[in-house]
Design brief:
single chain; alpha/beta; Rossmann fold; 8 helices; about 45% helix; binds NADPH dihydro-nicotinamide-adenine-dinucleotide phosphate
Length: about 240
Amino acid sequence: MSESNQPIALVTGGSRGIGKAIALALANLGVSVAVNYRERAEEAASVVEAIHRNGGRAVASAADVSVASSVQSMIATIEAQLGSIDILVNNAGIAITRGLDDITEDDFDRTIAVNLKSAFLCTQAVLPHMRARRWGRVINISSIGARIGARSISVAYGAAKAGIEGLTRAYALRLAPDGVTVNAVAPGLIDTEMGKPLIDAGIAAHIPVGRVGTGDDIAQTVLLLVQNGFITGQTLAVNGGSLFS
Ligand code: NDP
């Protein structure tokens, strides 16, 4: 934990959608939160204001998490503002919807960089502090698309999310002796901007529990993983029964 004994979290892509719900839930638990975003500064600022209104500590942190130098300067700024990071939630992601014939090399590279490489960059940047204090939590947001192929999103998305799950297990094995757990959460269809095209296409009708998921469904799972030190290397599926893993 941080020196003030109030843990400090970084939520990448915390300005809206699932990341916003995670940032707010962590703040409710008494965690100080860095709310990362790429370009929507106003939305990140409103998450930070909501946390401040509730008496919590939070800062907005602009950075493209797919770029190493941006990640390094973001982490340095957060350390100066809040302290060293105890809890990392690698949530930022993009879902390019081009099909088999239209996907480009650039789409593929960008998807892997934002959805997979970013988790490596952010994890590497926070690990020295977590290992030194022998406590840390890394939670990677995967997707049901890692296993079902997600026909309506590019093939790169399924590859990146399957990669996230492998990265999770590889880090978990190496970091368990240091008191750092590393897990993934694999959401099914969630009501966010990213999920909207699928919701509009009527996918919700096929979800066994009879509803689309919410950011809070995922945030609750993240809190479980923050509070439990005996779960590591796992991918928890949170998908309303869409896939039994
Ligand atoms: P949204 O599109 O609603 O939000 C994406 C967030 O990621 C925004 O905060 C955005 O910042 C940020 N972001 C995107 N690219 C970057 C980048 N390069 N650097 C920093 N931040 C970035 O997505 P969701 O909330 O729906 O998704 C969150 C995660 O959950 C993703 O990893 C997604 O793949 C996964 N997921 C989502 C599902 C769904 O149905 N919604 C299902 C399964 C998994 P900004 O606001 O500045 O653009």
